[in-house]
Design goal:
Layout (H helix, E strand, L loop, with lengths): L14 H10 L4 H4 L2 H8 L4 H6 L5 H13 L2 E3 L15 H9 L6 E5 L17 H9 L6 E4 L2 H10 L4 E7 L21 E7 L2 E2 L10 E5 L2 E2 L15 E5 L15
Helix pairs in contact: 3-5, 6-7
InterPro entries: F-box-like_dom_sf, F-box_dom, FBX38
Protein name: F-box protein 38
Length: 255
């Protein structure tokens, strides 16, 4: 007698189980949305999160590109004006970012932790000339929000048509006043609120748009710092613990 053959029962596959397994798999709802809906969602997300979506899928990358082409207002700090902008920017990467936004009109949150005064040869740095080049690449730019002393002075010098948005307040104020903390305010600077703390300032010139002026630990270096002071829109003027010529307030034209 030969060996017995084992009867192997065929394993029946339950169609209901397979359907439930497929149903349990997570669906990619984002890729099912249209580009228009995705762009509408991006309006409520921080820019950093939007840029991270570029690498998730081809459709999301296309949606991010479309959104950046038409966006007019961008906040690098996601509404948290007291924080600094994301680190890791270089001159080239910042220029690449702003070139993706040709219609941008208002740039908020330009609060870098540190900026090089000049470009560094052979090194990818984040510098004031690099930021200016990126801003000048935006033909429709109307205003910028920043808190950097040297950057705002450079904007006033090379881009005088650009408004300084919000409340400008330098974040490196200290006493005794550091020698590098200095600001030269041009005549007719396009700014509404100026708060200076621990800064050397030659004079306060004629600024028709200025509404609020707050000076604390400010050293006024010119003999007559308020000689040309004329701010027709001024509503608030505060000086606290400032140094300069004797009785400098006699040069302030009030009324």
């Amino acid at each position: 007698m030969g060996p017995r053959r084992k009867n192997v029962k065929p394993c029946s596959v339950n169609s209901e189980d397979s359907e439930s397994t497929i149903a349990d798999e997570p669906k990619d709802y984002m890729n099912q949305l249209s580009h228009e809906v995705l762009c509408h969602i991006f309006r409520y997300l921080p820019l950093q999160d939007i840029m991270c979506m570029e690498c998730l899928s081809r459709k999301l990358k296309e949606a991010v590109t479309l959104y950046l082409r038409v966006v007019k207002v961008v906040d690098l700090c996601a509404g948290r004006w007291w924080e600094y902008m994301p680190t890791g920017f270089t001159d080239s990467s910042f220029l690449t970012l702003l070139r993706k936004m040709p219609d941008i009109e208002q740039l908020y949150g330009l609060h870098p932790r540190y900026l090089e005064r000049r470009r560094v040869r052979g090194h990818e740095a984040f510098s004031i000339p690099g930021v200016l080049e990126a801003l000048q690449a935006c033909p429709n730019l109307l205003g910028v929000e920043t808190s950097h002393l040297e950057l705002v002075e450079a904007i006033w010098t090379y881009m005088p048509q650009v408004h300084i948005l919000g409340k400008f307040r330098n974040r490196n104020g200290a006493f005794p006043i550091p020698p590098e903390n200095k600001l030269k305010i041009p005549i007719g600077a396009k700014i509404q609120t100026l708060h200076l703390v621990g800064v050397n300032v030659p004079e306060i010139p004629c600024i028709p748009m200025l509404r609020h002026l707050y000076l604390k630990w400010v050293r006024l270096t010119k003999p007559q710092p308020f000689k040309d002071f004329l701010c027709i829109s001024l509503r608030t003027f505060v000086m606290r613990n400032c140094a300069g010529p004797t009785n400098s307030l006699k040069y302030v034209q009030i009324g």
